[in-house]
Amino acid sequence: xxxxxxxxxxxxxxxxxxxxxxxxxxxxxxxxxxxxxxxxxxxxxxxxxxxxxxxxxxxxxxxxxxxxxxxxxxxxxxxxxxxxxxxxxxxxxxxxxxxxxxxxxxxxxxxxxxxxxxxxxxxxxxxxxxxxxxxxxxxxxxxxxxxxxxxxxxxxxxxxxxxxxxxxxxxxxxxxxxxxxxxxxxxxxxxxxxxxxxxxxxxxxxxxxxxxxxxxxxxxxxxxxxxxxxxxxxxxxxxxxxxxxxxxxxxxxxxxxxxxxxxxxxxxxxxxxxxxxxxxxxxxxxxxxxxxxxxxxxxxxxxxxxxxxxxxxxxxxxxxxxxxxxx
Length: 327
Hints:
single chain; mainly beta; Tachylectin-2, Chain A; 4-stranded antiparallel beta sheet; 45% strand
């Protein structure tokens, strides 16, 4: 069954982009210029992993490292984590975005106890960003769900703790979770910002929305106090797992609905300056069959030899695997 992407008419221009963006549209592009992704294979299953404390893994981030490290373990590093306690930030590596990926033997590379910085029930949701100015990989991760933290590494494996970058105290009263953050290089000249953060916010209503912030350096942040995408905007109980894509001078947020609301990936155009809220509908239609079982979530995007790929959670939350789809 072919995946379907439904987008209203959108101007599409631009050249190919590396990890974190999508390549220029081709003759086979779906409406709106975005690829029509099709499931290829499962990359990681909990049962096949040496480090498997809870039988579940979530929130993949894939990064090309072949042009950044002198002697990488593979051309691509794939970060992921269990969510439930104790969690643990994990790494796998491979030479193709279609796999296979090999589990790093000393996982987790970041644990839930990092003295003297923190001791928490779990750490999870790794997002890694290459920072050219510092020649470092910056890891954003949560633990507890109230707190998003930053760690930094020269080799993508051994990290040094930096600081808390987001917590519930930085958002409106009644906020109970600020987690599942991804950070992207994105210019906002009017705000003096070079980076944006997308994250999931929960509050006492127990309905999750997508929020955002901006930063000049990736360390110190200002956060919009109102959601970027409300669950009610798109007919969902919860939305989460946001990822930023850019094309044609505009910016788009791809995110997942919870399975109760359909379990698919959706897309909203927010504009280059994040002032637009144009909900474009379905981005990726998950299968009812395995491994998706009606749910795709937390996508990470990359290209290899000009071919676009999406690495994502496939399957019911806390009972799924990491899969790859090709555009």
